[in-house]
């Protein structure tokens, strides 16, 4: 028993050290990537892209299930996009509310005969509506099959060569599509996917479907998610992108070349982490075919989303994410540590397995082993205390650096009090929010063991103005 | 315990430093914003004078960037004496010289910034240096130089830009935009490149000739419909549709049997603009094409050139789903 506790204790310390070393190694990459992003704005060519007849079209896909409270605002936000050629495809995934009726009435849509290409598998399409001027709007009404299934239907009915995937409760910045398409325009032969930044919109000032003044949320839970998202996107994804190993293009805001998504078979419907799985599958497909490609991250385009403001919704979301992570890792386990799959196989997926998936298990082991070890006199209480303090401080510094990247690149939170709140959130996020998320992720592991599936429910309040 | 204590102390110190740095940055950024606004206020009279085509007084060199930024938004739409006045102003203030020197800076981002700003200063003096910058080792410098040459409407840059495009030294979209900004002055260069050896250059030249050319270029472009490179054939279809060439319905119909689906799709799409009801029977066959995208475009084209036929055929229950879709689009007034 003593030896086991001792081993767990040593492993926990080594694990914490390893994860922190990983973060440290990612820092210069994130810093360099953000610096480059900021500098390149100086010779951005948005205006040219906007007025050019050669700018490729984009279909914006919005899966919607019982989204009557937000669908019209969401479409209003999309209609405000400054992009020359795009269409909006709303996929009503068997809603039982008035989502479709509201869309038809508000935008004067006409029913037309569906003519899907049948390149992808999805539940039957019942009705198709088209209309909208000057921007084409398509409303697809289909049997319920889940988010991935709805996206497959949207892909099959999309008319443009690129698809941008977003959620019905999200708001895109007006230039989001233009900026998102920049990597594509610069390297159309190779770029097959682009991930954009997702930010928390709770309590921000929203006018006419636009976030006009981002603010730190009123609730603590949402505030912690603000800094968590900053760390994930401006620190993590920028760094992974620099390594050529971006393993996820977020489902809330991602852009793909349609033909490649069709080629790989579209979204996998038997997972709750369809965005991660699709990204990994696209990497795998291109690597196996030996084709040159890039799946990249663009930090500038922003999609604002409503973060869970209560523990139950947060718990459900994180359990689902953790299950999704496992499902993707398991499905693509043969890519792990295989040189053929490049940085994704050699770095990103092992990182996901060891430091993302296993992290709650390791932390749980540590929380169990430390009190027992102290009780048995195997572990010194001071060492445990030092371990906790150092881990917390290190996490705080990393989060503060992510806040620094936001301040350097965007200064979205203009009010000084918001900056202060961001600091406080950065300090306390590592004190209890991370541990709370770990508990949910442990529950996710339990769900995997029990083979539980399904999405759970996401309680939405709508992005309310402050 | 010394090591954890030391680590904690170091991390606390780093944390405090990062927080202080953030606050300092915030103050600095706010000051800089104020300075920028003040500079914009100072250069406003100079800007107005320049837009009137008049000589403007000298301003501080630190205000050059503010003036260039304000002019950047207007420069593409300016012409004639106004452009010349702007160029003279930047030349006499030494801003052009400084930016040209910036193009030999050892740091790539400085060179790219200089290349970008030169495009907004409207001066022909920048052209030779920008042309050389097309061969810079850094892709961002090449991109900024291409964009600037377009904004300067530098005729001499058309062929080098297209060559850069063909060698993938600059992104296609940036190079094409630059040539489109140069406008009809680029036509002689484009016509010369339509039959060049390199397929990618030919494709780019054909595409841009379609955008900038006129029906007299139809013959040149028609020859490209039988080009050995599929990309050139595809672009030729699009180009012919854009210039509204006459009597090419049959040639496009022939391409509906092309082995490359993108070419078939481009031919079907082009027929929507330059086709006639005589092309309908061939398009009806293409509605059953194996490639869904080609079939989709063929149905939409049919709806555009033979709406009556599509409405009649699409009304049948056993009609092809694409025809039924096209017919319903026509009924809804959306075709």
Key features of this structure:
heterodimer; A: 466 residues; alpha/beta; two-stranded antiparallel sheet; 12 strands; 16% strand; globular; B: 335 residues; mainly alpha; 70% helix; extended
Written account of the structure:
The complex is a heterodimer of chains A (466) and B (335). Chain A is of the alpha/beta class. Chain A is 53% helix and 16% strand. By secondary structure, chain B is mainly alpha-helical. In chain B, helix 4 runs antiparallel to helix 5, helix 5 (108-118) runs parallel beside helix 7 and helix 8 (158-166) runs antiparallel to helix 9. The chains are: A alpha/beta (466), B mainly alpha (335). Chains A and B meet through helix 2, strand 3, helix 14 and helix 15 of A and helix 1, helix 5, helix 7, helix 9 and helix 17 of B.
The residue ranges of chain A in which pLDDT falls below 50 over 5 or more consecutive positions are none
Series of secondary-structure elements of chain A, N-terminal to C-terminal: HHEHEHEEEHEEHHEEEHEHHEHHHHH
Largest interface: A-B, 49 and 54 residues
User: Quaternary arrangement of the chains shown?
Assistant: heterodimer
Spatial extent as radius of gyration of chain A: 22 Å
The rough form of chain B would be described as: extended
Kindly, what is the distance between the CA atoms of the first and last residues of chain B, rounded to a whole number of angstroms?
Answer: 77 Å
Strand content of chain A: 15-25%
Number of helices of chain A: 15
Overall radius of gyration of chain B: 28 Å
**H/E topology pattern of chain B:** HHHHHHHHHHHHHHHHHHH
Q: What is the tally of beta strands of chain A?
A: 12
Poorly predicted ranges of chain B: none
> How large a portion of the residues of chain B is in β-strands, by DSSP E?
under 5%
Give average pLDDT of chain B, whole number: 88
User: How far apart are the first and last residues' alpha carbons of chain A, in Å?
Assistant: 54 Å
Work out the helix count of chain B: 19
Shape designation of chain A: globular
Would you tell me the overall average pLDDT of chain A?
A: 92
How can the largest sheet of chain A be summarized?
Answer: 10 strands, mixed
> How many E-type strands of chain B?
0
């Amino acid at each position: 028993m003593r030896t086991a506790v001792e081993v767990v204790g040593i492993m926990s310390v080594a694990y914490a050290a390893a994860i922190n070393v990983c973060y440290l190694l990612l820092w210069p990459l994130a810093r360099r990537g953000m610096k480059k992003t900021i500098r390149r704005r100086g010779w951005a060519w948005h205006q040219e892209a906007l007025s050019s007849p050669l700018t490729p079209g984009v279909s914006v896909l919005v899966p919607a299930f019982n989204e009557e409270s937000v669908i019209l605002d969401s479409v209003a936000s999309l209609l405000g996009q400054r992009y020359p050629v795009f269409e909006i495809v709303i996929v009503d995934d068997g809603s039982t509310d008035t989502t479709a009726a509201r869309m038809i009435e508000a935008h004067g849509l006409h029913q037309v005969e569906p003519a899907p290409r049948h390149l992808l598998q999805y539940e039957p399409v019942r009705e198709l509506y088209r209309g909208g001027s000057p921007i084409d709007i398509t409303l697809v009404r289909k049997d319920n099959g889940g988010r991935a299934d709805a996206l497959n239907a949207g892909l099959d009915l999309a008319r443009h060569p690129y698809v941008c995937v977003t959620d019905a409760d999200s708001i895109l910045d007006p230039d989001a599509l233009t900026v998102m398409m920049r990597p594509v325009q610069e390297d159309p032969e190779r770029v097959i996917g682009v991930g954009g930044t997702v930010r928390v919109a709770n309590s921000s000032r929203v006018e006419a479907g636009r976030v006009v003044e981002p603010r730190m949320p009123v609730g603590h839970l949402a505030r912690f998610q603000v800094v968590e998202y900053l760390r994930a996107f401006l620190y993590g994804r920028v760094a992974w992108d620099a390594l050529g190993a971006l393993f996820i293009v977020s489902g809330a805001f991602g852009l793909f070349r349609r033909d490649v998504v069709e080629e790989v078979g579209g979204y996998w419907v038997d997972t709750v982490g369809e965005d991660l799985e699709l990204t990994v599958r696209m990497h795998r497909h291109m690597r196996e075919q030996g084709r040159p490609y890039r799946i990249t991250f663009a930090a500038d385009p922003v999609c604002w989303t409503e973060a869970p403001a209560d523990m139950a919704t947060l718990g459900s979301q994180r359990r689902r994410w953790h299950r999704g992570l496992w499902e993707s890792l398991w499905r693509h386990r043969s890519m792990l540590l295989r040189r053929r799959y490049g940085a994704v196989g050699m770095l990103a997926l092992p990182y996901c397995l060891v430091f993302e998936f296993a992290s709650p298990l390791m932390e749980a082991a540590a929380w169990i082993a430390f009190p027992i070890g102290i009780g048995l006199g195997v572990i010194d209480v001071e060492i445990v205390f030092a371990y906790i303090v150092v881990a917390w401080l290190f996490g705080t510094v990393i989060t503060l650096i992510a806040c620094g990247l936001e301040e350097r690149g965007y200064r979205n939170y203009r009010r000084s009090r918001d900056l202060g709140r961001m600091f406080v959130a950065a300090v306390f996020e590592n004190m209890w929010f991370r541990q709370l998320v770990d508990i949910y992720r442990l529950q996710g592991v339990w769900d995997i063991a029990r083979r539980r599936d399904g999405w759970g429910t996401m309680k939405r309040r709508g992005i309310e103005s402050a | 315990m010394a090591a954890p204590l030391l680590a904690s102390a170091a991390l606390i110190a780093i944390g405090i430093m990062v927080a202080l740095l953030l606050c300092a940055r915030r103050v600095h950024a706010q000051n800089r914003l104020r300075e920028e606004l003040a500079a914009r206020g100072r250069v406003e009279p100079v800007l107005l004078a320049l837009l009137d085509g008049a000589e403007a007084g000298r301003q501080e060199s630190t205000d050059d960037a503010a003036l260039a930024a304000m002019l950047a938004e207007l420069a593409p739409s300016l012409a004639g004496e106004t452009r010349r006045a702007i160029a003279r102003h930047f030349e006499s203030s030494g801003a052009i010289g400084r930016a040209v020197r910036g193009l030999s800076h050892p740091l790539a981002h400085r060179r790219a910034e200089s290349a970008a700003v030169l495009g907004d200063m409207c001066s022909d003096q920048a052209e030779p240096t920008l042309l050389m910058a097309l061969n810079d080792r850094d892709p961002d410098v090449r991109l900024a130089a291409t964009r600037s040459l377009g904004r300067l409407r530098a005729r001499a840059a058309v062929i080098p830009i297209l060559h850069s495009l063909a060698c993938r030294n600059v992104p296609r979209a940036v190079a094409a935009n630059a040539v489109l900004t140069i406008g009809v002055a680029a036509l002689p260069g484009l016509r010369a490149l339509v039959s060049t050896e390199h397929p990618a250059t030919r494709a780019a030249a054909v595409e841009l000739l379609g955008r900038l050319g006129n029906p007299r270029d139809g013959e040149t472009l028609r020859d490209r419909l039988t080009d050995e490179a599929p990309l050139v054939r595809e672009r030729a279809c699009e180009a012919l549709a854009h210039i509204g060439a006459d009597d090419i319905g049959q040639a496009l119909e022939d391409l509906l049997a092309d082995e490359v689906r993108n070419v078939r799709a481009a031919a079907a799409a082009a027929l929507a603009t330059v086709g006639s009801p005589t092309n309908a029977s061939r398009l009806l066959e293409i509605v059953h094409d194996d490639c869904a995208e080609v079939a989709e475009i063929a149905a939409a084209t049919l709806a555009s050139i033979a709406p009556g036929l599509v409405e009649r055929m699409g009304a049948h229950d056993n009609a092809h789903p694409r025809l039924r879709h096209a017919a319903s689009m026509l009924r809804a007034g959306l075709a």
